[in-house]
Amino acid sequence: MRKLSVSVAIAALLAATPTAYAFGASGVTVTGYCKSTGFIASEASLMSVSSQITALQGTLAAQLHLIGSSIASQEGALISTIDSQFKNENNQIRHSANAARIGQIKAQQALAMAPNQQPQNMCDAPGLGAGIQVGSQTNADLTQKIAAASNSHDTTFTRPIDADAAVMKAPSAVFGPSPPFVPGGSLSPVQSGIASQWINADTAPYPLPAIPATSNPSPSAMRYDAAVRVDTARLAVPQETEAMIVALHTASLNVGTWPSDTWAAMTDKSGGVPPGVVNGHISDNALTRLQVAARYANPSWYAGLATKNTQGLLREVAMMDAVRMHMQYTELRLTERMAMMISQMAAQQANRAARHDAGVRG
To answer: pTM of this prediction?
Structure first.
């Protein structure tokens, strides 16, 4: 709002002052009054002052009119500004309310997907599945490599003393209690190597030495060579089975932060490395154990079931079915190998019984 210009009024007064007080002669007698000893205005001077006062009144009226107009215009602008401010504040309140509602919805969604309520959440399921798929292929490759190394071990030696030397050179941990089944659930690279040598010590610590091939072998040499081949064939299934178990315990699955997130939810801790994680990887068996422990041994899981909506419960059922199906498939693979070894044992006993009945030695 524009302020009153004081300079205009001052200028008007200064303009009136020089002529408003025209000084008369000393001692002028005024009828009906006493004799004055000072200066008084003459009639002309009084008329001049009256006209200038009138002009000043007009100037002041004009200034007051301008001021009033300014106030009126500024008042309208002020009212418009206040109205705009109120509208803006109203819009801000509406936006805040909407943001609050959106925040509440997001909070509810976050609560439904929170680790403490849903440690098995499927937000990172695609990455988890990809890591498991790659890790499973790695396990299969590792099983084949360990089995091939064991098969090579069976045919490497040409003298019994060579097998003795190999046993003596093996690390002492090879002959310790159950190297494949470490407490953490996952084998480190060093432990995996020790477990591979343990398979050799378990299945064929003293394999039959291979004899040099000849163009005209003797009957005893042919029989010995046949026995070596039969022994190698019989050991193939047990060695491959134990290699598979070692591979299932080897940390080969890269599933990102899923194990640590699940572990934090299970233990209500924000840090720490869960059992079975080795250099950011986890074994197939350790991951399965963590999946089971996230539910059966996790109080938050039981409490979370009561707070889940239908979609959350369906996700949990789907996850549990996937874990159950994976375990059943692993059991199928092991059952096949167990059935194969039982068949081998039954066939071996039948062969011995038949040879005994036929009176054939060997």
So the answer is: 0.61
